[in-house]
Design brief:
- It contains four helices and 15 strands.
- With 212 residues, the protein is of the alpha/beta class.
- The chain has a single domain, classed as Metallo-beta-lactamase, Chain A (4-Layer Sandwich).
- It has a seven-stranded mixed beta sheet with strand order 1-2-3-4-5-6-7, with helices on one face. A six-stranded mixed beta sheet has the order 8-9-10-11-14-15. Strands 12-13 form a two-stranded antiparallel ribbon.
- The model has no long low-confidence stretch (mean pLDDT 95).
Length: 212
Amino acid sequence: MPLFYDKEVKVFKTSCGPYNNNAYLIVSPETNESIIIDAPMCPQELLDEAKGTQVKAILITHTHQDHLAGLEEIVAATGAPVQAHSEDAAALPISPSALVKDGDTITVGTIALKVIHTPGHTPGSVCYLVGNHLFSGDTLFPGGPGRSNSPQDLQQLIENITEKLYALADDTSLLPGHGQDSTLALSKEEYRIFAQRNHPEDLSGDVLWLES
């Protein structure tokens, strides 16, 4: 069953592999063309969902291995081209057919997907926006940002989250690379509490808005 189904898109969410990675299938109800977001290990359930659709693109949010381990299997099954940001492309096991950049729109059938470059977790991390559905990869989770390797990376993440993602409507659904979905309204409120507190200058790593 789709996670979301409206006149613009059907969205299927699948938890894959030992790290419970989320992979997403976005289908145009009108044309039955589809997009896959991320390619974790053990993608067979995702591929089963994609059967009967025409997969036109495989979009990568960032190039950590847990989001790529099933890429070759997915490409072999679908023949679809792979797209990623240039800052992360070298780490892909398959050369991308195209590179995405901030502000790009990718159109598949009736789906118009916007690319939002959000470096910090990795230099080439991107989020994808379809209607009011935000596929945030490991940039933003319910509860906080993705893991950062340094205070500078955390600051970059926070700037991208607050300036780019939190500029979106409150009712935007938050669909992360791991875990449960949420809304930007809830995430914004959690961040508001975080921002009111003082934090050590060396803060980084696994940060939680309500606990760090």
